Amino acid sequence: xxxxxxxxxxxxxxxxxxxxxxxxxxxxxxxxxxxxxxxxxxxxxxxxxxxxxxxxxxxxxxxxxxxxxxxxxxxxxxxxxxxxxxxxxxxxxxxxxxxxxxxxxxxxxxxxxxxxxxxxxxxxxxxxxxxxxxxxxxxxxxxxxxxxxxxxxxxxxxxxxxxxxxxxxxxxxxxxxxxxxxxxxxxxxxxxxxxxxxxxxxxxxxxxxxxxxxxxxxxxxxxxxxxxxxxxxxxxxxxxxxxxxxxxxxxxxxxxxxxxxxxxxxxxxxxxxxxxxxxxxxxxxxxxxxxxxxxxxxxxxxxxxxxxxxxxxxxxxxxxxxxxxxxxxxxxxxxxxxxxxxxxxxxxxxxxxxxxxxxxxxxxxxxxxxxxxxxxxxxxxxxxxxxxxxxxxxxxxxxxxxxxxxxxxxxxxxxxxxxxxxxxxxxxxxxxxxxxxxxxxxxxxxxxxxxxxxxxxxxxxxxxxxxxxxxxxxxxxxxxxxxxxxxxxxxxxxxxxxxxxxxxxxxxxxxxxxxxxxxx
Length: 520
Fold this sequence. Notes:
Layout: E1 2-7, H1 11-20, E2 28-34, H2 37-47, E3 51-55, H3 63-73, E4 78-83, H4 88-96, E5 101-104, H5 109-156, H6 162-172, H7 174-178, E6 181-187, H8 194-201, E7 206-209, E8 217-222, H9 231-246, E9 252-255, H10 265-281, E10 286-289, H11 290-323, H12 327-343, H13 349-367, H14 377-381, H15 386-409, H16 411-425, H17 434-440, H18 445-456, H19 460-478, H20 483-489, H21 495-506, H22 510-519
Parallel strand pairs: 1-2, 1-3, 3-4, 4-5, 9-10
Antiparallel strand pairs: 6-8, 6-9, 7-8
Helix pairs in contact: 2-3, 5-6, 10-11, 11-12, 11-13, 12-15, 13-15, 15-16, 16-18, 17-18, 19-22
């Protein structure tokens, strides 16, 4: 829609023009009316209409004088003159004032409609041109802003010479170099396009990526020269209020102290980043200040011994429950342990990851007595939220519980499978025997012998000997090792005994077998 201002000193003509055409059908709204040139000028300044229809001859200030003054302030307004004077002097002056059209009185409906349609086309062209100009300006400003933000990213993260970066910023953006700065790290619940965050700032802030937290952005906001140290937190609270009006989802904003200038912005950024990481890790929504983080750290330091003592006892309890496969009790104990972590918010991500990794190692040794699992610390440190860590540990515990429960159900199969694996691994040892294997699988030699014979159909000694002969046959066939070396490789130091057993299995001596294989 376009707006129109009607300026006419004759009341009946003025009111008649308001009802003269179906303005709405033409896409025009009546913004207002005025009784003379003086009021017309004032209304034009107040309403900024797209079109002005005005009489020429009026008291106080005529239409030509009013149009000249309006043109100086509103160059895009379209002006249509109404006049009962058709002499050339008025027409020539109207044209010199860039009149878009003029209509002679008495006004005929069709003539007025035709004039308005011509003017509307002019208005459409002006709007299109202004939109194009605004897009060009926006692109230019966006390009300049991107260059400034790239330099800010280098400055905040310590890339390059800070004095050189500040000098480059001084050329591009004086405001940043002459005012205190508020630095904050904004962490939305899910990654958002930069445009969504920029809407909160109304172009008053500069945004740069924050690679340390997925989906986060860093905002740098120029403050007033008399800014107090808590002004950054105050602006963050205002942003939070704007966010809540747009979304019900939680938002975390980390802030540090205001930076007196660009040279100190890196320190302010590190404080804001640490506060944001602290807030995200413990699930704290809203504004999180570096002071809040420091207070939590100091508070934990006073309670750390009691916390660690309780944690160690709880870890021991979980291990005992796992040994006896008490699933419900394990979950309850884990819930208490995780709640204890959440209530000690100053412990820090790295310390918590170390404690959880220690729990995993202790529990893994129940399943693997050869040293347990030592490789989970990097996975834990790669998580930014305590909830992720706790979920990861809970999944590990559930998986371990399921495997141990399956092992208990299939205990015989497990013992036999492990015995076979041990035989394969230790076949080169002269000490390989039923007693040694029984020690490894934590059962008596007699019990292992019975289980093995029942499952495999052979004694442990027979299986060991068959494995040694199979391995020795492979070595003699595929290598040029001496017979004595092959015997040693399969754990048989007595060469004559080795040769005797080999001949029983394959019908020829080891030397004859190897010679036959080499001829092929």
